[in-house]
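Lay summary. Proteins are chains of building blocks that fold into shapes, and those shapes determine what they do. In this project we predict the shape from the chain. Here is one chain we studied, written as its sequence of building blocks.
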Amino acid sequence: MGVKLGLIGTGTVGGGCLDIINTHKQNFLHHYGIDLEVARVCSRNPDQAISHGYGDCFTSDFHDIINDPDIDIVIELIGGTTTAKDIVMGALAAGKQVVTANKALMATSGEEILDLADKMHCEVAFEASVGGGIPIIVPLKHSLISNEVSSILGIVNGTTNYILTLMAESGINYSDALALAQEKGFAEADPTADVDGLDAAAKIAILASIAFNTRITMDQVYHEGIRLILPTDLTAAQDMGYCVKLLALANRTDEGIDVRVHPTMVPLDHPLAAVNGVDNAIYVKGDAVGETMFYGEGAGAGPAASAVMGDVLETARRLQAGCQPFVGCTCTDALPLVPMENLTTRYYIRFEVEDRSGVLAATANVFSNHDVSVYSVIQRGKNEGGTVDLVYITHTARERDIRKVLSDIRCLEGVLVDDSEPTVIRVQK
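And here is the predicted shape, written in a compact code that computers can read:
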């Protein structure tokens, strides 16, 4: 008896899933005894279903799928947090298994979804929500379950990693690098979610929830993007023995859980420093396993569809064996979330200032007033209009003190050029 699928969303990832089924259906049956049947396909574009050979089972109404008693697994691939939530909750309420790639949905409504799944004795699989084709959700839930995870560092957004790589290698500015990323299809027409760190925030919320058994939602994650990064920042980092990456970080501390997304200086000898272009990587440290890294393509039809279909096959295998879900929601703890103001680390801070006497003394005095110890201060080059970049590297300092420094320097008369915004990059220890 076959396992019947209802697939909702026939875009890049959904089309990739249909291609995998068309190509490997007989292999799945031969090797694993899993007979997959696509019973219904739903999207706003019937031509997409037709192009993959599923025009005869097309519907434009997702209710036709969640209300079909014969469908065993619902695959949600439309994205978003409104209609997608209706689909997932409706499918679970109908007693169906769910596979999704929806990071935003799981990072905002994961607790509600998983509670309903538990109540209905159903499974929600979401491997493709983080890292594309990189296995990370299942390893955290299964392979690394015997560990107490102390930290996760991730390059989990290919768009920003491509932009920063291009800026570092070519010396071009952010706007030009973004335009090239959009031209090559690596960045959306509206890149906000990527370049402002929202996409990465959703992903680290999911990973932190699993790793630390504590529910973290997307809106609890501090996030900064890469818009203020200049080529001079990347050159300065290189001179210091670092590169700049948009990192998603989650750490277990004595105070609780520290979860954040921001540009970070990563030592050149760290494994994450070698992850360039559109690739993703997730670095996990556990008390038993030590340090591990999961690396690969983080986006695209093939990698994402691979992760989705892996979930589909595992869910189908469980259904055929008559087994209950192996691992549901593991957020059994309620560890406190550490406020960003309590972060303690080193800082790179660059100001564009007027090239005149007294500026260095005035800014240095502000650091001293807030007991922020300065490791070095460097004046880098001359800009148009007679301005210079003043770069401070601090010793270990507390975030709240750094914010006081920045606030006071913004108030110094005639120091910051045209009310320019300082660039702040935290330095990974």
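What the prediction tells us: The chain has a mean pLDDT of 93.
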